[in-house]
Amino acid sequence: MNQSSARPPSAVAVLRSPALGFTALLALLFTTALATGALLGPVAPGMHPGAGPAATVEDGGHGHGGAR
Q1: What are 41-61's pLDDT values in tens digits?
Q2: Is 68 in a helix, a strand, or coil?
Q3: Do residues 65 and 59 touch, judged by C-beta distance below 8 A?
Q4: Which portions of the sequence form the region Disordered (predicted)?
């Protein structure tokens, strides 16, 4: 009989591999998104807090608009 002397992987090694792969994928996606955002610039360049006239609430302020 030919028995293999290879040890079965431990539970820690089995769990570590997918966790490291997932973490690496997350880091890659975050880095790609950050680089793309920096390359393309702001989505709405003219949108700044405090710019323009103050918002007003009409029709009692219930937010239903004109649909009655």
Answers
A1: 877 777 666 656 666 656 555
A2: coil
A3: yes
A4: 41-68
